[in-house]
Amino acid sequence: MYPFSGEGCGETRRPNLSPDEVCRLLPVPEGPLRIPPTASRSPDLDRPEILLSVAIPTFRERQNLPILIDRLVGLLDPAIPGQYELIVVDDDSPDRTGEVAAALTEFYPQLRVMRRRGERGLSTAVIRGWQIARGRVLAVIDADLQHPLHTLLELWAQMETGADLAVASRHVEGGGVSDWSLARRLLSRGAQVMGLMVLPGVLGRVSDPMSGYFMVRRDAIAQINLNPVGYKVLIEVLGRGQIATVREVGYVFQERQEGESKVTWKQYWEYLEHLLRLRMARWPVGRFLRFAIVGTSGLLVDMAIFYLLLDGWGWPLTLSALLSAEIALLNNFFWNDRWTFGDISRRQSGWHRRFKRLLKFNLICLAGLGLNVVILNALVWGLGVGAYLAKLGAIAIVTLWNFWVNLKLSWRVTEVDEDVRLNERR
Ligand SMILES: Nc1nc2c(ncn2[C@@H]2O[C@H](COP(=O)(O)OP(=O)(O)OP(=O)(O)O)[C@@H](O)[C@H]2O)c(=O)[nH]1
Ligand SMILES: [Mg+2]
Questions:
Q1: 54, 92, 144, 268: which to mutate for ligand 1, most atoms within 8 A of CB?
Q2: What is the pLDDT of residue 2?
Q3: Which of 111, 331, 382, 384 pairs with 230 at a CA distance of 20 to 30 A?
Q4: Residue 4 lies in a domain
């Protein structure tokens, strides 16, 4: 389904690897970071379906990896026999972690290994691993034994009870950090607070958005173009996935015994960049453009009706203005309901709900009119701005207000029919 870079059996493009080693490596997916909706089944149809795929990103972890794999197999074999897989994604570590991993596949049939070149980074490594995963549930765990392994079974238990996402958290009961300096604690919490300010609706959903230890249902993140940078794959999953039910399990972050941390200041910058990417992706730019086009059509309707009533039929000024404004408002509501917010309206069916939306739209636009007058006066009398420039400024601010408040109140996604929501999730 996905174009691969051509590694795998029979390939001779990797002169530094023996043919045997190449055969044990998984092909590296190329192109968009998009997870297929259905897991590819093992060619051997007699083998049981894989339920859980655990991605293990590695960079210079040769001492830790054999211990981790042995312990993971010891833990998962009794719990989910034959129905899990471990996927190591190594970024061509100079300490030859990839070769160690490939050699381990001989002893652990449930282990699969991918070695990337060119592309690098923890988050993308995890997603590349998930792209070739076969499980219905996708997980990630660090390779350096800092994530206590028994927590994996607790996360699995949460997934089995129907969670979309189960996160190992340092900030719930039973959670913590073992021996962190005050500076590191402050940095970690600072990053969390900053994230909460930029993306409250995303990071606020879990107590430990910085966690790199979690499980997610495949269909909650399948067929979505993921685009993370840096270390925090969880915020990508929360920010772009269709996550309804979140569960948390406490865990204590262990100290590293072997190898060294790869965290540098670069990761903090990448975290910031990642937050901004998600923020931008969540702004409904297309919807706002449609709203602005409808608003412009309303202006034309308003002017035309006003002209007809005032000059054509000789109606009084105020009455003409009020009626033309109300007709323009109805025009705007009609097109916004059908087009700008059509996807939401279709999921909130019935005349009763449509009337409610119309009423809210009317009231919000009326409040917008009041706001317009206030801003206009403030700009002209308070700041000495010219009347026409001030009018333009007021229109721009009120358009934003109208759009935002209507988005949050009139066409609220939360009022979507429950049965439609359920169907969509299937
Ligand atoms: N594939 C891949 N894995 C990475 C990369 N950077 C880190 N990792 C792995 O991701 C996991 C977490 O990285 P660490 O450097 O331990 O980060 P951390 O656990 O948040 O921080 P420490 O507590 O300082 O160790 C480990 O398994 C690393 O080997 C990378 O660029 N590519
Ligand atoms: Mg670590």
A1: 144
A2: 32
A3: 111
A4: no
